Inverse folding.
């Protein structure tokens, strides 16, 4: 879910550099919060001190990053009530103006065309203050939880997760939760929202067990996430099912899958021609091919940005050779040099506004050629959906700007029913976004601003469906 480490670093540096209202008193610590694409928030601590030449030097700390990163400031200029900061190495700039009313610097950081507001003040910010998440359950829980580990021997990966079930002993139906794109922990934590934790809590309170686990290479799981494809993630899920069916508190005949976003793709792969899968729940999953999906996502994003239909069509044609190449059956050894050539041609034909934001090498380096991204672009749901015969539920929010509800749900339903699966439930939830939150602006950067993790109607609907299965 991250746009890139350097984007984070640059935005962070911006906020941290804000200074005080007078040039004689800006030394010391300043605290701010960086907001990113999905509404993720990171605390910033800016430490400033006199440099001995009448100016200032300093550093910023990012305590919420795993390694508590610290970066040295390159340029600090403070004149009157305006603070200017630069880090040439990472092409970062920041302008902040002192606001006497709030006793803060109110500033804007600019990097790669993105603007990010950052305010800095003297009051320390705790991690608990970053988000309000009223739906997040807190211990002690009225149900049983267990830290578990299981091994994908085929790929030499050890996966760590949490098994949750009702408190009373017994055999329960169980849901394996499969996270979306990008390295995710077991709670599928996005912008402070722990979607899978909230779902596991609701399921356990209503007679359903669940297993959620850290993606390979994330948290306590081993392996290399960035070298994996959706098929590799499917191997991990198959391993989890084999583990669950050996437990005495699980009904081995009712082990099902719940996949969110890309997790819906993984669920389709695992469930295809697999009688061991009791049911599938697709949350914001895809029915279109990966190649169709990228065109659709770009069009939605551009439309929300106010671009005309003619612009959207022209841009689609401009990018077509690149996406067609990535979605082709060619090997990566063939794709990479051809893709780089296309990107360089695209850059050279771009407007000057694009060239001001990044260099040609930046555009080449930022191109997504990860095994995960390529495997999604090549993915064709029909190949797998036509082989799924178990009960299948597909739900999407009507305000989802990442996976369009109508076209994807229609494609899923058609693929399943035309191939003889009569146990299909399709549902659109009005007013909900990609995370199934009741949204306002319904943009991706609103995810973190909303206090609601998931609309309560959704887990209720899912649980009722599971419990009524024969």
């Amino acid at each position: 879910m991250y746009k890139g480490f350097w984007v984070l670093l640059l935005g962070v540096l911006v906020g941290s550099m804000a200074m005080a209202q007078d040039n004689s008193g800006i030394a010391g610590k300043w605290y701010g919060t960086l907001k990113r694409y999905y509404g993720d928030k990171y605390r910033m601590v800016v430490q400033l001190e006199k440099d001995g030449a009448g100016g200032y030097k300093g550093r910023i700390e990012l305590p919420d990053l795993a390694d508590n990163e610290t970066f040295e400031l390159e340029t600090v200029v403070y004149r009157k009530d305006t603070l200017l900061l630069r880090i040439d190495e990472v092409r970062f700039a920041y302008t902040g103006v002192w606001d006497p009313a709030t006793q803060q610097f109110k500033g804007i950081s600019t990097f790669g065309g993105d603007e990010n507001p950052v305010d800095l003040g003297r009051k320390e910010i705790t991690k608990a203050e970053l988000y309000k998440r009223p739906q997040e359950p807190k211990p002690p829980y009225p149900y049983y939880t267990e830290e578990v580990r299981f091994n994908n021997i085929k790929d030499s990966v050890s996966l760590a997760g949490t098994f949750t079930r009702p408190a009373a002993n017994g055999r329960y139906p169980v849901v394996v939760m499969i996270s979306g794109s990008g390295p995710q922990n077991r709670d599928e934590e996005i912008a402070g929202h722990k979607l899978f934790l909230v779902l596991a809590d609701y399921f356990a309170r209503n007679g359903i067990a669940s297993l959620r686990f850290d993606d390979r290479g994330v948290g306590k799981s081993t392996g290399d996430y960035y070298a994996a494809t959706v098929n590799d993630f499917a191997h991990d899920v198959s391993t989890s099912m084999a583990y669950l069916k050996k437990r005495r508190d699980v009904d081995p005949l009712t082990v099902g899958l719940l996949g969110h976003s890309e997790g819906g793709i993984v669920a389709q792969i695992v469930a295809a021609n697999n009688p061991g899968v009791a049911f599938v729940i697709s949350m914001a999953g895809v029915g279109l091919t990966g190649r169709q999906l990228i065109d659709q996502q770009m069009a939605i994003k551009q439309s929300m940005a106010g671009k005309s239909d003619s612009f959207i069509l022209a841009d689609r044609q401009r990018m077509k050779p690149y996406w067609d190449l990535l979605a082709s059956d060619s090997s990566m050894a063939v794709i990479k040099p051809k893709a780089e050539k296309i990107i360089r041609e695209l850059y050279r034909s771009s407007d000057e506004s694009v060239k001001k934001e990044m260099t040609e090498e930046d555009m080449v380096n930022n191109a997504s050629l990860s095994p995960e991204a390529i495997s999604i672009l090549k993915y064709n749901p029909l190949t797998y959906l036509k082989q799924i015969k178990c009960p299948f539920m597909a739900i999407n929010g009507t305000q989802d700007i990442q996976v369009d509800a109508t076209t994807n749900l229609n494609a899923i339903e058609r693929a399943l029913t035309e191939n003889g699966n009569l146990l299909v439930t399709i549902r659109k939830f009005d007013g909900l976004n990609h995370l199934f939150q009741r949204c306002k602006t319904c943009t991706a950067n609103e995810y973190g601003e909303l206090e609601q993790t998931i609309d309560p109607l959704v887990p209720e609907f899912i649980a009722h469906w599971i419990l009524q299965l024969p």
